[in-house]
Write a structure and sequence with these properties.
8% strand, alpha+beta, single chain, 219 residues, 4-stranded mixed beta sheet
């Protein structure tokens, strides 16, 4: 088996897959993309023309899209932590929550970041205001959904939590989860304490001063 992950330690979608790999102690080589490793960057560009990371390479097989990468790991390199339930209805719920975190938390947060760095045709204040509006709605729904649950889909840590960890991490930096949502705040704290995500956060600590909105002095 030769698994390699191309990505960046500070990238939210890279972290999502790192959490899955760390959960099951899957052996892999991390190939960081950046100016200090041009050989990895060139290989990633060659293998992933859409220009997004992470990219998982399993031998010669290329797998992109973080949710699909995690589903692939479950199929091809399963471990003790089953990230997608065997039961189809339970799996559907996990996939829905994975979509929720990517589309309604991560995407919303990225509007603020993208407008700040000039990647969206709107002023940074407008991007931040739009992100806050979308995040407020998502936070409210999540706070209600998470009541009585340890993890996003219940008692088991799943793909949905892999998506939740980096998306809530950076969303909270963008628009702090209000005190009116204690269940969501407690869930984010549980994610940060989970060894797999704590490791991913630590590995990216060196880069956090580059967060375009300014990294807060916490976490
Ligand atoms: N839907 C993709 C999103 C991947 C994505 O947006 N990755 C970001 C890094 S977190 C990226 O590649 N950004 C580089 C760019 O857009 O130029 C996934 O789930 O893997």
């Amino acid at each position: 088996m030769s698994l390699a992950l191309y990505g960046h330690a500070f990238s939210s979608y890279t972290q999502k897959v790192l959490v899955a790999l760390y959960e099951n102690a899957v052996p892999f080589e991390f190939r960081g993309i950046g100016p200090e490793t041009p050989e990895h960057t060139a290989e990633w560009v060659r293998r992933c023309p859409i220009g997004k990371f992470p990219l998982l390479l399993d031998g010669e097989r290329e797998v992109i899209e973080s949710s699909i990468v995690i589903e692939y790991l479950q199929l091809a390199h399963p471990g003790p932590v089953r990230l997608v339930p065997a039961d189809p209805m339970a799996a559907l719920e996990v996939r829905f929550l994975d979509r929720f975190f990517d589309l309604h938390v991560m995407d919303a947060m990225q509007v603020a970041v993208a407008s700040k760095i000039g990647a969206l045709p709107m002023k940074s204040e407008e991007g931040l205001a739009l992100a806050e509006k979308r995040l407020e709605r998502a936070y409210g729904w999540l706070d209600r959904h998470l009541a009585g649950r340890t993890w996003a889909a219940g008692e088991d840590f799943t793909l949905a939590d892999c998506a939740a960890a980096p998306s809530l991490f950076y969303a909270d930096w963008t628009y702090r989860i209000p005190e009116a949502y204690p269940t969501l705040r407690a869930y984010r704290a549980r994610l940060l304490a989970r060894p797999s995500f704590a490791r991913a956060v630590d590995e990216a600590r060196y880069f956090r001063h580059n967060f375009p909105l300014g990294a807060p002095d916490r976490d």
